[in-house]
Design brief:
Elements (H helix, E strand, L loop, with lengths): L1 E6 L2 E4 L4 E9 L6 E7 L6 E6 L6 E3 L7 E6 L4 E6 L8 E8 L10 E4 L3 E6 L1
Amino acid sequence: QVQLVESGGGLVQAGGSLRLSCVASGRTSSRHGMGWFRQAPGKEREFVAAISWRGGSTYYADSMKGRFTISRDNAKNTVYLQMNSLEPEDTAVYYCAAGSPFVRATAGEYDYWGQGTQVTVSS
């Protein structure tokens, strides 16, 4: 019903910035909240940030507060993750997800997932 495609990942030096994008297609009129998760090799999938369907509410993992910003443009069916002050520990595959209209921090509460985009931060 919903397809998600992430983009914007790449290689960046520590202290740099990237902006990830996630474009939704299919049932894009649904009132989906959106989330970003990440997964490093050998690690569990980790919550990064979430935003409600209208964009009025956001929620961040503690380690991302002050550095990452989630936003969305429903006219473009796109959600963004602005990442600043990147650290090598941020290296992971980043996934966007769609689910409840409300902010959610648990992967199991999302219904649709993108294929991910690689973010690599060098020291």
